[in-house]
Design goal:
Outer Surface Protein A, domain 3, Ribosomal_uL6-like, five-stranded antiparallel β-sheet, ribosomal protein, 19% helix, 2 helices, Ribosomal_uL6-like_a/b-dom_sf, ribonucleoprotein
Protein backbone atom coordinates (compact mmCIF):
# COMPACT_ATOMS: atom_id res chain seq x y z
CA UNK A 1 0.00 0.00 0.00
CA UNK A 2 1.20 3.49 -0.80
CA UNK A 3 2.67 5.24 2.23
CA UNK A 4 1.40 8.57 0.96
CA UNK A 5 -1.95 7.26 -0.25
CA UNK A 6 -2.99 5.65 3.03
CA UNK A 7 -2.58 8.82 5.12
CA UNK A 8 -5.88 10.56 5.93
CA UNK A 9 -6.43 14.15 4.80
CA UNK A 10 -7.69 16.35 7.65
CA UNK A 11 -10.52 18.71 6.70
CA UNK A 12 -10.48 22.09 8.49
CA UNK A 13 -13.74 23.50 9.88
CA UNK A 14 -14.03 26.18 7.18
CA UNK A 15 -13.81 23.68 4.30
CA UNK A 16 -16.73 21.87 2.64
CA UNK A 17 -16.00 18.76 0.56
CA UNK A 18 -18.43 17.30 -1.98
CA UNK A 19 -17.78 13.88 -3.52
CA UNK A 20 -19.77 13.05 -6.65
CA UNK A 21 -18.55 9.79 -8.17
CA UNK A 22 -14.96 10.41 -9.24
CA UNK A 23 -15.24 14.21 -8.94
CA UNK A 24 -14.12 15.87 -5.72
CA UNK A 25 -15.09 19.51 -5.05
CA UNK A 26 -13.49 21.46 -2.23
CA UNK A 27 -14.84 24.84 -1.14
CA UNK A 28 -13.10 27.04 1.39
CA UNK A 29 -12.49 30.65 2.39
CA UNK A 30 -10.13 31.36 -0.54
CA UNK A 31 -12.21 29.77 -3.29
CA UNK A 32 -13.41 26.53 -4.82
CA UNK A 33 -11.52 23.77 -6.65
CA UNK A 34 -12.63 20.54 -8.28
CA UNK A 35 -10.69 17.54 -9.54
CA UNK A 36 -11.71 14.46 -11.49
CA UNK A 37 -9.83 11.51 -10.03
CA UNK A 38 -8.90 8.34 -11.92
CA UNK A 39 -11.45 5.50 -11.81
CA UNK A 40 -8.98 3.24 -9.96
CA UNK A 41 -9.35 5.22 -6.70
CA UNK A 42 -12.31 6.14 -4.53
CA UNK A 43 -12.54 8.97 -1.97
CA UNK A 44 -14.42 8.40 1.28
CA UNK A 45 -15.27 11.07 3.84
CA UNK A 46 -15.09 9.96 7.47
CA UNK A 47 -15.88 12.52 10.19
CA UNK A 48 -13.45 15.39 9.61
CA UNK A 49 -11.05 13.62 7.27
CA UNK A 50 -10.86 12.18 3.77
CA UNK A 51 -9.49 8.77 2.87
CA UNK A 52 -8.33 7.84 -0.62
CA UNK A 53 -8.62 4.09 -1.25
CA UNK A 54 -7.84 1.84 -4.21
CA UNK A 55 -10.59 -0.20 -5.82
CA UNK A 56 -8.21 -3.14 -6.33
CA UNK A 57 -4.50 -3.94 -6.24
CA UNK A 58 -3.88 -3.62 -9.97
CA UNK A 59 -0.76 -1.83 -11.13
CA UNK A 60 -2.59 1.32 -12.41
CA UNK A 61 -4.48 1.58 -9.11
CA UNK A 62 -1.24 1.37 -7.12
CA UNK A 63 0.38 3.98 -9.37
CA UNK A 64 -2.44 6.49 -8.98
CA UNK A 65 -3.17 5.98 -5.27
CA UNK A 66 -0.56 8.38 -3.85
CA UNK A 67 -1.04 10.86 -6.68
CA UNK A 68 -4.78 11.09 -6.07
CA UNK A 69 -4.30 11.60 -2.33
CA UNK A 70 -1.77 14.37 -2.97
CA UNK A 71 -4.06 16.13 -5.47
CA UNK A 72 -6.93 16.18 -2.96
CA UNK A 73 -4.63 17.30 -0.12
CA UNK A 74 -3.33 20.16 -2.29
CA UNK A 75 -6.90 21.23 -3.03
CA UNK A 76 -7.70 21.38 0.70
CA UNK A 77 -4.52 23.33 1.42
CA UNK A 78 -5.13 25.66 -1.53
CA UNK A 79 -8.61 26.75 -0.46
CA UNK A 80 -7.48 27.35 3.14
CA UNK A 81 -3.93 28.76 2.91
CA UNK A 82 -3.20 29.14 -0.80
CA UNK A 83 0.12 28.60 -2.54
CA UNK A 84 2.98 31.01 -3.20
CA UNK A 85 6.04 30.57 -5.39
CA UNK A 86 8.76 33.07 -4.44
CA UNK A 87 10.95 34.31 -7.27
CA UNK A 88 13.62 36.92 -8.01
CA UNK A 89 14.48 39.03 -11.03
CA UNK A 90 18.13 40.09 -11.30
CA UNK A 91 19.68 42.47 -13.81
CA UNK A 92 20.20 46.15 -14.51
CA UNK A 93 16.88 47.62 -15.61
CA UNK A 94 14.99 44.35 -15.13
CA UNK A 95 11.52 45.11 -13.76
CA UNK A 96 8.05 43.66 -13.29
CA UNK A 97 4.81 45.59 -13.44
CA UNK A 98 1.33 44.24 -12.78
CA UNK A 99 -1.67 46.02 -14.31
CA UNK A 100 -4.97 44.24 -13.88
CA UNK A 101 -4.47 40.66 -15.01
CA UNK A 102 -1.42 41.44 -17.16
CA UNK A 103 2.19 41.15 -16.11
CA UNK A 104 4.71 43.27 -18.02
CA UNK A 105 8.30 42.05 -17.73
CA UNK A 106 11.18 44.30 -18.74
CA UNK A 107 14.13 41.93 -18.99
CA UNK A 108 16.67 43.28 -21.45
CA UNK A 109 14.63 42.93 -24.62
CA UNK A 110 13.70 45.83 -26.90
CA UNK A 111 10.12 45.57 -25.67
CA UNK A 112 8.39 44.53 -22.46
CA UNK A 113 7.09 40.96 -22.49
CA UNK A 114 3.44 40.77 -21.46
CA UNK A 115 1.92 37.69 -19.86
CA UNK A 116 -1.81 37.27 -19.27
CA UNK A 117 -2.38 35.94 -15.76
CA UNK A 118 -5.04 33.21 -15.52
CA UNK A 119 -8.06 33.68 -13.31
CA UNK A 120 -7.22 33.05 -9.67
CA UNK A 121 -3.49 33.79 -10.08
CA UNK A 122 -1.90 37.03 -8.93
CA UNK A 123 1.65 38.35 -8.80
CA UNK A 124 2.88 40.35 -5.83
CA UNK A 125 5.97 42.48 -6.54
CA UNK A 126 8.26 43.88 -3.85
CA UNK A 127 9.50 47.23 -5.20
CA UNK A 128 12.47 47.36 -2.83
CA UNK A 129 15.77 46.11 -4.28
CA UNK A 130 17.44 43.39 -2.22
CA UNK A 131 20.95 41.91 -2.38
CA UNK A 132 21.13 38.57 -4.15
CA UNK A 133 22.71 35.54 -2.50
CA UNK A 134 25.97 34.23 -4.03
CA UNK A 135 26.71 37.69 -5.41
CA UNK A 136 28.62 40.58 -3.90
CA UNK A 137 27.33 43.41 -6.05
CA UNK A 138 24.07 42.31 -7.65
CA UNK A 139 20.67 43.43 -6.51
CA UNK A 140 17.27 42.26 -7.64
CA UNK A 141 13.60 42.34 -6.87
CA UNK A 142 11.61 39.68 -5.06
CA UNK A 143 8.17 38.75 -6.29
CA UNK A 144 5.71 35.95 -5.71
CA UNK A 145 3.15 34.08 -7.77
CA UNK A 146 0.07 33.48 -5.61
CA UNK A 147 -3.03 31.32 -6.10
CA UNK A 148 -5.15 28.49 -4.75
CA UNK A 149 -4.32 25.94 -7.47
CA UNK A 150 -0.81 24.56 -6.95
CA UNK A 151 -0.44 23.41 -10.54
CA UNK A 152 -1.53 26.77 -11.98
CA UNK A 153 0.88 28.64 -9.67
CA UNK A 154 3.76 26.42 -10.81
CA UNK A 155 2.81 26.77 -14.48
CA UNK A 156 2.70 30.57 -14.33
CA UNK A 157 5.99 30.68 -12.39
CA UNK A 158 7.65 28.50 -15.05
CA UNK A 159 6.21 30.71 -17.81
CA UNK A 160 7.61 33.84 -16.14
CA UNK A 161 11.00 32.18 -15.60
CA UNK A 162 11.16 31.16 -19.27
CA UNK A 163 11.08 34.84 -20.34
CA UNK A 164 14.69 35.29 -19.20
CA UNK A 165 16.32 32.17 -17.72
CA UNK A 166 19.45 32.61 -15.64
CA UNK A 167 22.66 33.05 -17.53
CA UNK A 168 25.68 31.41 -15.88
CA UNK A 169 28.29 34.17 -16.29
CA UNK A 170 26.74 37.18 -14.57
CA UNK A 171 23.74 35.52 -12.92
CA UNK A 172 21.20 37.78 -14.60
CA UNK A 173 17.68 36.59 -15.27
CA UNK A 174 14.57 35.35 -13.50
CA UNK A 175 14.95 32.62 -10.90
CA UNK A 176 13.09 30.82 -8.17
CA UNK A 177 14.08 32.12 -4.74
CA UNK A 178 15.30 28.66 -3.72
CA UNK A 179 17.32 28.14 -6.91
CA UNK A 180 21.09 28.24 -6.60
CA UNK A 181 23.44 29.12 -9.42
CA UNK A 182 27.13 28.39 -9.70
CA UNK A 183 28.68 31.16 -11.74
CA UNK A 184 31.09 30.11 -14.48
CA UNK A 185 34.44 31.78 -14.93
CA UNK A 186 34.64 34.00 -17.98
CA UNK A 187 37.42 34.23 -20.52
CA UNK A 188 40.82 34.88 -19.03
CA UNK A 189 42.16 36.89 -21.96
CA UNK A 190 45.64 36.98 -23.53
CA UNK A 191 48.73 37.33 -21.39
Amino acid sequence: MSRIGKRPIPIPDKVAVTIDGSTVKVKGPKGELSQVLPPEVVVVQENSSLLVNRRDDSRPARQRHGLSRTLVANMVKGVTEGFRKNMQIVGVGYRLQVTGNKLAITAGYSHPVEIDLPKGISVEVDQKAVPIANSKSQQGFNFGVIGIDKQAVGDVAALIRAVRPLEPYKGKGIRYATETLRLKAGKTGKK
